[in-house]
Amino acid sequence: MSSATSPVNSKLRNVMTEKTHKTIEQAEQEGKYIRKVRSFVKREGRLTKGQERALTDHWQNMGLNHSDGLIDVQALFGNDNPVVLEIGFGMGKSLVEMAKAAPELNFIGIEVHKPGVGACISLAVEQEVSNLKVYEHDAIEILADCIADNSLNTVQLFFPDPWHKKKHHKRRIVQADFVESIRNKLKVGGVFHMATDWENYAECMLEDMQNSPGYENLSETNDYVPRPDSRPLTKFENRGQRLGHGVWDLQFKKS
Ligand SMILES: C[S@@+](CC[C@H](N)C(=O)[O-])C[C@H]1O[C@@H](n2cnc3c(N)ncnc32)[C@H](O)[C@@H]1O
Questions:
Q1: Which pTM value belongs to this model?
Q2: Does residue 58 lie in a domain region?
Protein backbone atom coordinates (compact mmCIF):
# COMPACT_ATOMS: atom_id res chain seq x y z
CA MET A 1 0.00 0.00 0.00
CA SER A 2 1.40 3.37 -0.94
CA SER A 3 1.78 6.04 1.68
CA ALA A 4 4.58 8.37 0.62
CA THR A 5 3.88 11.66 -1.10
CA SER A 6 5.23 12.05 -4.62
CA PRO A 7 5.88 15.43 -6.20
CA VAL A 8 2.81 17.35 -7.22
CA ASN A 9 3.33 19.13 -10.49
CA SER A 10 2.52 22.78 -10.32
CA LYS A 11 1.90 23.34 -14.05
CA LEU A 12 -1.49 22.18 -15.23
CA ARG A 13 -2.87 23.45 -18.51
CA ASN A 14 -6.22 22.37 -19.63
CA VAL A 15 -5.32 20.28 -22.68
CA MET A 16 -6.96 16.89 -22.58
CA THR A 17 -5.66 14.10 -24.80
CA GLU A 18 -9.08 13.03 -25.96
CA LYS A 19 -9.74 16.49 -27.31
CA THR A 20 -6.44 16.85 -29.16
CA HIS A 21 -6.11 13.15 -30.07
CA LYS A 22 -2.61 13.12 -28.63
CA THR A 23 -1.35 10.74 -26.00
CA ILE A 24 -0.79 12.22 -22.56
CA GLU A 25 2.91 11.37 -22.88
CA GLN A 26 3.21 13.35 -26.13
CA ALA A 27 1.32 16.27 -24.64
CA GLU A 28 3.52 16.15 -21.54
CA GLN A 29 6.66 16.18 -23.69
CA GLU A 30 5.38 19.30 -25.43
CA GLY A 31 4.72 20.85 -22.05
CA LYS A 32 1.01 21.14 -22.80
CA TYR A 33 -0.35 18.81 -20.19
CA ILE A 34 1.05 17.84 -16.84
CA ARG A 35 -1.02 15.74 -14.51
CA LYS A 36 -1.40 17.15 -11.06
CA VAL A 37 -1.49 14.03 -8.95
CA ARG A 38 -1.15 10.30 -9.43
CA SER A 39 -2.90 7.55 -7.50
CA PHE A 40 0.33 5.62 -6.99
CA VAL A 41 3.96 5.98 -6.09
CA LYS A 42 6.10 3.88 -8.38
CA ARG A 43 7.88 1.28 -6.28
CA GLU A 44 10.97 -0.07 -8.00
CA GLY A 45 10.74 -3.49 -6.38
CA ARG A 46 13.15 -6.14 -7.64
CA LEU A 47 11.85 -8.69 -10.07
CA THR A 48 12.19 -12.34 -9.15
CA LYS A 49 13.82 -14.58 -11.75
CA GLY A 50 10.40 -16.06 -12.56
CA GLN A 51 8.79 -12.63 -13.05
CA GLU A 52 11.67 -11.50 -15.26
CA ARG A 53 11.45 -14.66 -17.36
CA ALA A 54 7.67 -14.30 -17.70
CA LEU A 55 8.06 -10.70 -18.93
CA THR A 56 10.83 -11.60 -21.38
CA ASP A 57 9.22 -14.72 -22.77
CA HIS A 58 5.54 -13.78 -22.80
CA TRP A 59 5.24 -9.99 -23.11
CA GLN A 60 4.88 -10.29 -26.87
CA ASN A 61 1.85 -12.52 -26.44
CA MET A 62 0.27 -11.11 -23.29
CA GLY A 63 1.57 -7.56 -22.93
CA LEU A 64 -0.12 -4.43 -24.25
CA ASN A 65 1.73 -1.16 -24.83
CA HIS A 66 0.36 2.29 -24.15
CA SER A 67 2.30 3.59 -27.15
CA ASP A 68 0.22 1.38 -29.49
CA GLY A 69 -2.83 3.54 -28.80
CA LEU A 70 -6.44 2.46 -29.19
CA ILE A 71 -6.91 -1.30 -29.03
CA ASP A 72 -8.99 -3.43 -31.37
CA VAL A 73 -10.42 -6.10 -29.06
CA GLN A 74 -11.52 -8.37 -31.91
CA ALA A 75 -8.00 -8.37 -33.39
CA LEU A 76 -6.39 -8.77 -29.97
CA PHE A 77 -8.34 -11.78 -28.74
CA GLY A 78 -9.56 -13.19 -32.07
CA ASN A 79 -13.18 -13.01 -30.91
CA ASP A 80 -15.76 -10.45 -29.84
CA ASN A 81 -16.48 -11.85 -26.39
CA PRO A 82 -17.46 -9.38 -23.63
CA VAL A 83 -14.53 -7.50 -22.11
CA VAL A 84 -13.68 -7.17 -18.40
CA LEU A 85 -11.12 -4.51 -17.49
CA GLU A 86 -9.39 -4.66 -14.09
CA ILE A 87 -7.52 -1.64 -12.74
CA GLY A 88 -4.69 -2.17 -10.20
CA PHE A 89 -4.60 -5.97 -10.14
CA GLY A 90 -1.64 -6.13 -7.74
CA MET A 91 0.09 -9.52 -8.18
CA GLY A 92 -2.78 -10.68 -10.44
CA LYS A 93 -3.77 -13.78 -8.49
CA SER A 94 -7.50 -13.03 -8.38
CA LEU A 95 -7.50 -11.68 -11.96
CA VAL A 96 -5.96 -14.91 -13.30
CA GLU A 97 -8.41 -16.94 -11.24
CA MET A 98 -11.36 -15.00 -12.70
CA ALA A 99 -10.04 -15.27 -16.26
CA LYS A 100 -9.53 -19.00 -15.88
CA ALA A 101 -13.05 -19.44 -14.52
CA ALA A 102 -14.62 -17.47 -17.40
CA PRO A 103 -13.09 -18.46 -20.76
CA GLU A 104 -16.15 -16.94 -22.47
CA LEU A 105 -14.94 -13.46 -21.46
CA ASN A 106 -11.88 -11.41 -22.45
CA PHE A 107 -9.87 -9.87 -19.60
CA ILE A 108 -7.58 -6.84 -19.69
CA GLY A 109 -5.56 -5.93 -16.60
CA ILE A 110 -3.76 -2.67 -15.85
CA GLU A 111 -1.09 -2.36 -13.16
CA VAL A 112 1.84 0.03 -12.67
CA HIS A 113 3.90 -2.25 -10.42
CA LYS A 114 6.24 -4.24 -12.69
CA PRO A 115 6.81 -7.22 -10.35
CA GLY A 116 3.00 -7.54 -10.12
CA VAL A 117 2.71 -7.60 -13.90
CA GLY A 118 5.48 -10.23 -14.11
CA ALA A 119 3.80 -12.32 -11.40
CA CYS A 120 0.44 -12.09 -13.18
CA ILE A 121 1.88 -13.19 -16.54
CA SER A 122 3.83 -16.00 -14.88
CA LEU A 123 0.69 -17.33 -13.17
CA ALA A 124 -1.44 -16.98 -16.31
CA VAL A 125 1.09 -19.00 -18.30
CA GLU A 126 1.26 -21.63 -15.56
CA GLN A 127 -2.56 -21.83 -15.50
CA GLU A 128 -2.76 -21.86 -19.33
CA VAL A 129 -5.00 -18.80 -19.33
CA SER A 130 -5.26 -17.36 -22.85
CA ASN A 131 -8.08 -14.82 -22.46
CA LEU A 132 -6.00 -12.24 -20.56
CA LYS A 133 -3.79 -9.33 -21.71
CA VAL A 134 -2.04 -6.83 -19.44
CA TYR A 135 -0.67 -3.29 -19.42
CA GLU A 136 2.16 -2.08 -17.21
CA HIS A 137 1.06 1.54 -17.13
CA ASP A 138 -1.05 4.19 -15.39
CA ALA A 139 -4.71 3.23 -15.81
CA ILE A 140 -5.75 6.88 -16.20
CA GLU A 141 -3.64 7.16 -19.35
CA ILE A 142 -4.74 3.78 -20.68
CA LEU A 143 -8.39 4.79 -20.30
CA ALA A 144 -7.77 8.07 -22.11
CA ASP A 145 -5.63 6.75 -24.95
CA CYS A 146 -6.22 3.02 -25.49
CA ILE A 147 -9.78 2.03 -24.60
CA ALA A 148 -12.61 2.88 -26.98
CA ASP A 149 -15.79 4.47 -25.63
CA ASN A 150 -18.75 2.11 -25.11
CA SER A 151 -16.51 -0.97 -25.39
CA LEU A 152 -16.36 -2.57 -21.92
CA ASN A 153 -18.82 -4.92 -20.24
CA THR A 154 -17.28 -4.72 -16.76
CA VAL A 155 -14.71 -2.56 -15.00
CA GLN A 156 -13.23 -3.93 -11.76
CA LEU A 157 -11.39 -1.90 -9.14
CA PHE A 158 -10.58 -4.01 -6.12
CA PHE A 159 -8.96 -2.54 -3.02
CA PRO A 160 -7.48 0.61 -4.59
CA ASP A 161 -4.85 2.37 -2.47
CA PRO A 162 -6.96 4.11 0.21
CA TRP A 163 -4.64 7.07 0.87
CA HIS A 164 -5.80 7.22 4.48
CA LYS A 165 -4.78 10.76 5.40
CA LYS A 166 -7.23 13.49 4.46
CA LYS A 167 -4.50 15.59 2.86
CA HIS A 168 -3.84 12.65 0.49
CA HIS A 169 -7.46 12.03 -0.48
CA LYS A 170 -6.85 13.87 -3.75
CA ARG A 171 -4.59 10.95 -4.71
CA ARG A 172 -7.42 8.44 -4.52
CA ILE A 173 -8.13 7.05 -7.98
CA VAL A 174 -11.90 7.26 -7.46
CA GLN A 175 -12.85 10.88 -8.13
CA ALA A 176 -15.75 12.47 -10.01
CA ASP A 177 -13.86 12.69 -13.33
CA PHE A 178 -12.60 9.10 -12.99
CA VAL A 179 -16.08 7.61 -12.53
CA GLU A 180 -17.29 9.67 -15.48
CA SER A 181 -14.49 8.35 -17.69
CA ILE A 182 -15.30 4.77 -16.62
CA ARG A 183 -18.92 5.40 -17.60
CA ASN A 184 -17.80 6.58 -21.05
CA LYS A 185 -15.84 3.36 -21.57
CA LEU A 186 -18.66 1.03 -20.46
CA LYS A 187 -21.32 -0.23 -22.84
CA VAL A 188 -24.89 0.58 -21.87
CA GLY A 189 -25.78 -2.06 -19.25
CA GLY A 190 -22.09 -2.54 -18.38
CA VAL A 191 -21.13 -2.66 -14.70
CA PHE A 192 -18.52 -0.81 -12.65
CA HIS A 193 -17.60 -2.96 -9.64
CA MET A 194 -15.52 -1.57 -6.79
CA ALA A 195 -14.49 -3.06 -3.46
CA THR A 196 -12.63 -1.55 -0.53
CA ASP A 197 -11.88 -2.41 3.08
CA TRP A 198 -11.63 1.25 4.07
CA GLU A 199 -15.00 2.57 5.22
CA ASN A 200 -14.32 6.23 4.55
CA TYR A 201 -13.21 5.39 0.99
CA ALA A 202 -16.39 3.30 0.49
CA GLU A 203 -18.49 6.30 1.57
CA CYS A 204 -16.63 8.61 -0.83
CA MET A 205 -17.00 6.07 -3.68
CA LEU A 206 -20.73 5.88 -3.00
CA GLU A 207 -21.07 9.66 -2.98
CA ASP A 208 -19.11 10.06 -6.24
CA MET A 209 -21.23 7.38 -7.92
CA GLN A 210 -24.52 8.82 -6.67
CA ASN A 211 -23.51 12.26 -7.94
CA SER A 212 -22.48 10.93 -11.35
CA PRO A 213 -25.35 10.93 -13.87
CA GLY A 214 -26.02 7.85 -16.00
CA TYR A 215 -25.34 5.18 -13.40
CA GLU A 216 -27.86 2.93 -11.65
CA ASN A 217 -26.96 1.45 -8.26
CA LEU A 218 -27.42 -2.34 -8.27
CA SER A 219 -27.74 -2.36 -4.48
CA GLU A 220 -31.22 -3.19 -3.20
CA THR A 221 -30.57 -0.88 -0.27
CA ASN A 222 -29.22 1.87 -2.51
CA ASP A 223 -25.73 1.67 -1.02
CA TYR A 224 -23.56 -1.48 -1.03
CA VAL A 225 -24.08 -4.96 -2.54
CA PRO A 226 -23.34 -8.27 -0.81
CA ARG A 227 -19.92 -9.67 -1.67
CA PRO A 228 -20.41 -11.40 -5.05
CA ASP A 229 -19.18 -15.02 -5.25
CA SER A 230 -17.58 -14.17 -8.60
CA ARG A 231 -14.95 -12.04 -6.86
CA PRO A 232 -12.10 -14.22 -5.59
CA LEU A 233 -10.45 -13.24 -2.33
CA THR A 234 -7.63 -10.83 -3.24
CA LYS A 235 -4.34 -10.49 -1.40
CA PHE A 236 -5.43 -7.20 0.16
CA GLU A 237 -8.84 -8.50 1.15
CA ASN A 238 -7.19 -11.47 2.80
CA ARG A 239 -4.95 -9.13 4.76
CA GLY A 240 -7.91 -6.92 5.68
CA GLN A 241 -9.84 -9.93 6.95
CA ARG A 242 -6.93 -10.93 9.17
CA LEU A 243 -6.93 -7.41 10.59
CA GLY A 244 -10.68 -7.59 11.17
CA HIS A 245 -11.59 -4.99 8.52
CA GLY A 246 -15.03 -4.90 6.91
CA VAL A 247 -15.38 -4.98 3.11
CA TRP A 248 -17.72 -2.85 1.00
CA ASP A 249 -18.65 -3.83 -2.57
CA LEU A 250 -20.31 -1.32 -4.92
CA GLN A 251 -21.83 -2.22 -8.27
CA PHE A 252 -23.26 0.40 -10.61
CA LYS A 253 -24.74 -0.20 -14.05
CA LYS A 254 -24.42 2.26 -16.94
CA SER A 255 -27.97 3.23 -17.80
C1 LIG B 1 -3.83 -1.85 -2.59
S2 LIG B 1 -3.30 -2.58 -4.07
C3 LIG B 1 -4.59 -3.78 -4.44
C4 LIG B 1 -4.13 -4.85 -5.39
C5 LIG B 1 -5.17 -5.91 -5.74
N6 LIG B 1 -6.32 -5.32 -6.42
C7 LIG B 1 -5.60 -6.67 -4.50
O8 LIG B 1 -6.74 -6.48 -4.05
O9 LIG B 1 -4.79 -7.45 -3.98
C10 LIG B 1 -3.63 -1.31 -5.27
C11 LIG B 1 -2.89 -1.53 -6.58
O12 LIG B 1 -3.29 -0.55 -7.53
C13 LIG B 1 -2.16 -0.18 -8.30
N14 LIG B 1 -2.43 1.15 -8.87
C15 LIG B 1 -2.64 2.31 -8.19
N16 LIG B 1 -2.91 3.31 -9.03
C17 LIG B 1 -2.87 2.79 -10.28
C18 LIG B 1 -3.05 3.34 -11.58
N19 LIG B 1 -3.33 4.64 -11.75
N20 LIG B 1 -2.92 2.53 -12.65
C21 LIG B 1 -2.63 1.20 -12.48
N22 LIG B 1 -2.44 0.63 -11.28
C23 LIG B 1 -2.56 1.40 -10.19
C24 LIG B 1 -1.01 -0.22 -7.31
O25 LIG B 1 0.24 -0.37 -7.95
C26 LIG B 1 -1.38 -1.44 -6.46
O27 LIG B 1 -0.81 -2.62 -6.95
A1: 0.88
A2: no
